[in-house]
Specification:
Length: 278
């Protein structure tokens, strides 16, 4: 065992060093607003919905207006221009401004379509939406797929999937998933589940120094503000205002979350950073 101790120590130190660097402002970062063009893929079937279904939209082929409302919320959130009145006093001094602007791609990608929006019919809506509408230059655009699916993000930075029913409804669902797309984990752990059982063996840490430790998400149902939170570790307070939690009160990123997201753009999507003028 003694022969492996130096190797184990070196790996541990490297991990700690990389973790610290991810939260230290990159030397290339001059504070510019980073502009990211977005392509929306709407994958829809013929199924219709009523109020009794609990769906605010009648069908999966949602209107451009709903998409633009979601995009507006996204930009308010990522420029720290959203409503921050819900933030608890002890977290106000660590609110971070990612200073990232998302704009709909300024090109028509489909004959007769709107700029930056692709609409594709599929009889079942399909589980694999990228098969119906292929990715558009993932190094240049954020590809957002909207259909009758759950909300999930490919952490390799390929795409975001969103459920059509939550678009433009002030849920901040795109903000949350864009945080994942830019390298953030859930505030309670590097796992997607909110289940107490599934999180039992997970390390209760997202790798960000200024987010407090939590046992699990605050409120999966997102029905009350403040949430009925029992997720906090003893002696700490949950940051249920954080966009990377599940809460109807989510409205902030921390300063180190903002740094990590900007660093990830510089390190993994340098073209986007360089194309954003100071």
């Amino acid at each position: 065992m003694k022969y492996y101790q130096p190797i184990i120590l070196s790996i541990l130190l490297l991990f700690i060093s990389n973790l610290a660097l991810s939260q230290t402002k990159n030397s290339l970062d001059d504070g510019r607003t980073i502009n990211i063009p977005v392509v929306f893929h709407i994958i829809y079937s013929n199924k219709t919905y009523t109020v009794s279904d609990g769906k605010p939209h009648q069908n999966e082929n949602i209107h451009d207006e709903a998409i633009l409302r979601e995009l507006k919320d996204l930009n308010l959130d990522f420029r720290m221009k959203n409503d921050l009145s819900f933030v608890e006093e002890e977290f106000k001094n660590i609110i971070g401004n990612p200073n990232i602007n998302f704009h709909i791609a300024d090109t028509i990608l489909q004959e007769g379509g709107s700029k930056g929006i692709i609409r594709k019919f599929h009889p079942t809506g399909t589980k694999f939406m990228t098969n119906v509408s292929p990715l558009v230059q993932k190094d240049k655009y954020l590809n957002v797929y909207i259909g009758n699916k759950g909300n999930v993000t490919n952490l390799n930075g390929d795409w975001i999937n969103l459920n059509f029913s939550q678009i433009g409804e002030n849920t901040h669902v795109l903000t949350h998933e864009a945080g994942h797309w830019l390298g953030l984990y859930h505030i309670w752990a590097k796992v997607g589940s909110c289940s107490r059982f599934k999180n039992f063996f997970a390390k209760k840490d997202d790798g960000i120094d200024d987010t407090p430790p939590q046992k699990r998400c605050s409120d999966l149902s997102r029905k009350s503000c403040p949430p009925k939170n029992r997720a906090v570790k003893k002696g700490t307070k949950a940051n249920w205002n954080n966009f990377m939690d599940y809460s109807t009160c989510r409205c902030m990123f921390t300063q180190k979350q903002a740094i990590k997201m900007r660093n990830n753009i510089i390190e993994k999507r340098l073209k986007l950073f360089n194309s954003s003028s100071l």
